[in-house]
Amino acid sequence: MFCDRQKALQFIRFCTVGLGNTAVDLIAFFILNFGGTPYLQAQLISYSIGVLNSFVFNRRWTFRAAGKVNVSEIVKFIIVNGFSLLITSGLIFILHDAYHVNLWISKILATAAGIIVNYIGNRFWVFVTNQTLTGDTL
C-alpha cells in the first residue's frame, strides 16, 4: 500500500491522531444521544469537536506543516471534513434506519469510512503544499 517508510509512518501518525479524535467523537456522540439529542444532531456536534483537535495535531505532527496557518488550508480542511461528515452521517442513517443495524455498530462503521476519506483529502489536498511529493500514491 505504501511505497516508502516515511509515508507509512505518516499514515500511522494520522491513525494515532484519529484514534484520539475518534474517542472524543464517540464519547461526545453517545453522551449527547443518551441525553436525548437526536443521533444526526449528535453526529454533527460530536464530529465537529473531533475536527478541532484533528486540525491542530494533523497539521503539526502528522503532515508537519510549516509556517502559520493560512486561510486556504483552513477552508480545504473544513471542506474535507464537511465531506467526511456527510459520508459518515449518511452511512449512519442508511445502516441504522434502513438496515436496522445497532447504532453503536453503525457509528463505528461510518467512522472507519470517514478515516479513509479524511486521510486521502488531507494527504493529497489540504496539507500537500507542505510535503515533499514523490509522485507515489498512498
Output the keywords.
single chain; mainly alpha; elongated
What is the fold's blueprint, element by element?
Elements: H1 5-34, H2 39-62, H3 71-98, H4 103-126
Characterise this structure.
The structure is a single chain. This protein is mainly α and 138 residues long. It has one domain. Helices cover 77% and strands 0% of the residues. It contains four helices and no strands. The chain has helices spanning 5-34, 39-62, 71-98, 103-126. Helix 1 (5-34) runs antiparallel to helix 2 (39-62), helix 1 packs across helix 4 (103-126) and helix 3 packs antiparallel against helix 4 (103-126). The radius of gyration is 16 Å and the shape is elongated. The model is unreliable at 132-138 (pLDDT under 50).
Radius of gyration: 16 Å
Biggest pleated-sheet summary? none
Provide the residue-averaged pLDDT.
87
Order of helices and strands: HHHH
Beta-strand segment tally: 0
Shape: elongated
Beta-strand residue fraction: under 5%
Low-confidence stretches are 132-138
Distance between the termini: 6 Å
Helix content: over 70%
Number of domains as seen in the coordinates: 1
Structural category is mainly alpha
* Number of helices, where a helix is a run of at least 4 consecutive DSSP H or I residues: 4
